[in-house]
Amino acid sequence: MKKKENRIYGYELVLDLFDCDVEVISSKKKLQEYTDKLCKLIKMKKFGKTLIPYFGKREEFTKGYSLVQLIETSSITGHFSEYWKRAYINIFSCMTYDSVLAKKFTKEFFKAKRVKARFLTR
Asked: Residue 38: enclosing H or E segment and its boundaries?
């Protein structure tokens, strides 16, 4: 048996998406669709409802949707800026998943012109 400190706890894909389609990132319905399709695509089982609040309204550059979807093996989170036309997505799971497929799907769904991705083992 491996020592606990040498074990991988989980995998996290961190995506910064630039020049996204504003109609997509500002639609609660589209964000729910993204979450549902992503979970199915990477074989993650949702745990509870998707939270998709709209807040940060005091300043133009801070307002937008955020999303939190708990999954049985951790969570998917996202923050969306209409002002900057950007999306920031984190997919964390104790179970392995296809991070390349998740990145490709996410970039296409939000129609991002550019994406910066980092994949971490934790």
From this structure: helix 28-41
Supply 25's token pair.
Answer: 């990132």
Tell me how far apart the alpha carbons of residues 10 and 23 are, in angstroms, rounded to a whole number.
Answer: 33
Contact (Cβ atoms closer than 8 angstroms) between residue 79 and residue 90:
no
Q: What is the average per-residue pLDDT within 14-25? A: 98
Number of domains in the chain: 1
First to last CA, the chain: 19
Domain range for 65 is: 8-116
Nearest to 100 by CA among 53, 58, 27, 42: 42
Please tell me which residue, 62 or 109, carries the higher pLDDT value. 109
- Residue where the block lists tokens 């769904």: 109
Strand ranges (DSSP E) for the chain?
A: 11-18, 54-55, 64-71, 74-81, 86-93, 114-121
The verdict on residue 121 lying in a domain is no
Give the DSSP letter of residue 76. Answer: E
Looking at residue 23, which CATH number applies to its domain? Answer: 3.60.90.10
